[in-house]
Amino acid sequence: MFQKLEGIVLRSIDYGESNKILTIFSREKGKVGAVARGAKKPNSRLASVSQPFTYGYFLCSIGSGLGTVQQGENIDSFRTIKEDLFLTAYSAYIVELLEKGTEEKVVNPFLFELLYQTLKHISEGYDPKIIKNIFEIKMLSVLGFRPILTECAVCGNPDGPFAFSVKEGGIICPNCYHKDPYHLKVQQATIRLLKLFYYIDITRIGSINVKELTKKELNQCITAYYEEYSGIYLKSKKFLLQMEELG
């Protein structure tokens, strides 16, 4: 039985002489795997929709194992991303994080829309470092983590100045700094952005100008949290770090 899926290609790997196996994150079925037969052939009608980051409609057979892509219709290839090595590095990290952080065939329309809007913002020229951070923070709830960012994670004090504590799972006030000797003393602007990124709808993100020090602190907090709690190892992260060093 074939079903039309609105999806984004997370990964595309060669399979045999002429086929590809696609990992697609769809609005209707969540993450699915499907064989695109003949997609490696340049004249194949599936060639253009079998590239990573491609957003389109896919007519697929969905069963207990790998499905089959019968037809594909390209909505947005995100060519801007594919033609820029830096943007490719950020986008590859984002799609791998989603792929590693989700189970097969678990429907999540919110996450689909988040992925689409994230790639759209990157392709439209928004700061990829900031868009990556927004995606990472919003992905935490999908992974089952909810950092406390509105009040002290230890005593509930709503007044700062706050530091970020990986150990306590969120922000902590001066009265509780001693609870975590390794807390991260960051700017209050960094704390405010962590909270903003966690709660705001990404479609409402306008032009964001963030100082380099704040970007560094945001990345420090998010990376430390992921390393402590997620257990996710991403191959694309090494490539991304190399690109950031070049940038």
UniProtKB/TrEMBL annotation:
<dbReference type="Pfam" id="PF02565">
    <property type="entry name" value="RecO_C"/>
</dbReference>
<dbReference type="InterPro" id="IPR003717">
    <property type="entry name" value="RecO"/>
</dbReference>
<dbReference type="Pfam" id="PF11967">
    <property type="entry name" value="RecO_N"/>
</dbReference>
<dbReference type="InterPro" id="IPR042242">
    <property type="entry name" value="RecO_C"/>
</dbReference>
<dbReference type="InterPro" id="IPR022572">
    <property type="entry name" value="DNA_rep/recomb_RecO_N"/>
</dbReference>
<dbReference type="InterPro" id="IPR012340">
    <property type="entry name" value="NA-bd_OB-fold"/>
</dbReference>
<dbReference type="GO" id="GO:0043590">
    <property type="term" value="C:bacterial nucleoid"/>
</dbReference>
<keyword id="KW-0233">DNA recombination</keyword>
<keyword id="KW-0234">DNA repair</keyword>
<feature type="domain" description="DNA replication/recombination mediator RecO N-terminal">
    <location>
        <begin position="3"/>
        <end position="78"/>
    </location>
</feature>
<dbReference type="GO" id="GO:0006302">
    <property type="term" value="P:double-strand break repair"/>
</dbReference>
<dbReference type="InterPro" id="IPR037278">
    <property type="entry name" value="ARFGAP/RecO"/>
</dbReference>
<comment type="similarity">
    <text>Belongs to the RecO family.</text>
</comment>
<keyword id="KW-0227">DNA damage</keyword>
<comment type="function">
    <text>Involved in DNA repair and RecF pathway recombination.</text>
</comment>
<dbReference type="GO" id="GO:0006310">
    <property type="term" value="P:DNA recombination"/>
</dbReference>
<protein>
    <recommendedName>
        <fullName>DNA repair protein RecO</fullName>
    </recommendedName>
</protein>
